Model the fold of this input.
Amino acid sequence: MEDYVVQHITVENFKHQSSAAVYNILKELVIKKDIATGKITLVDWSQYGYKADWLFGVVVDGTYYFMTIHPDGSFKIEALKRNLFTMTEYDKYMDYFGLNEENKNDYRGVIGLVKDAEGNINLIKDTNMYSMPDYTAMGDVLKNVASEGRFPGKDVVTWLRLVMDTTDKIKVHAELDIVIPHIDVNAEYTKANVMGLFKGITTKKEVVRYVFENTGIMLYAYLRGEEERREYLSGNIDINYFDYDDTHAKYSVGEIGNGMKYTIERASVVREIQAVEGSKLIFKKVLPLMGVEFVRYGMLTVVPFPFKYLREYIVKEDLCD
Done:
């Protein structure tokens, strides 16, 4: 190949702090290649088990873009404008966006359209709602921890012996075997004193769990573990979907819960799904398509990833004009 420079890039060639950026670069290149070839290779489309075509649609500046994906991952993208003299199967799909532009009825705020092979059409709509952590429950936990308390040494010994009876974790048993003989049963212990008896985080969590479940006393608030994140931050991690009735649902997409950072940088936007004109709710079937990391490494895509392909196609078309 003359007048071309070819460079092969792999994530392993870069230091850890650069790998996320390189991962995203490679992902974008794969999407561009897929658009050129008409075949999804970013993921194995067949793994989703779809037996028929799916249609995804958006409108940008008066042009309607529709992506039809076949069961083998091959696809076709069409860019269409309204034509009063030529009717196509897409005209009825355009209506949902057209009515949105005119602000006439329930189709306001439509940002995308999804259709299955049976003709069921679901619209994705923006809302002004955001998912928030369970601040009430978190506040109750923190108030419980902040409350003063002094506990007889004999009670502390009883707690720890019962912890040993309820856990099979070898490290916890080993540490408690060392700690218990050194507890002064005639002394009083604050929450900080009790927690200071242990070095192992696993032991501390087991003690906190047992004491809270059996006495209601919270010795310490562990809010950063995976279990705690799912209890108090469930609306801000992973994909959350709720059916409201036969034709309406809502969903939000947060950060990946497993191994998530200790902070949440922003609230998750809640979006509405509407099944139109006798259609069934089918959006739940395409939820797995939001399990692909986009935007930044470690972040889920907020709409099914075929919409990312449509956006890239639109950018490519704009550059060619």
User: Anything to note?
Assistant: The longest helix spans residues 16-37. The chain has a mean pLDDT of 83.
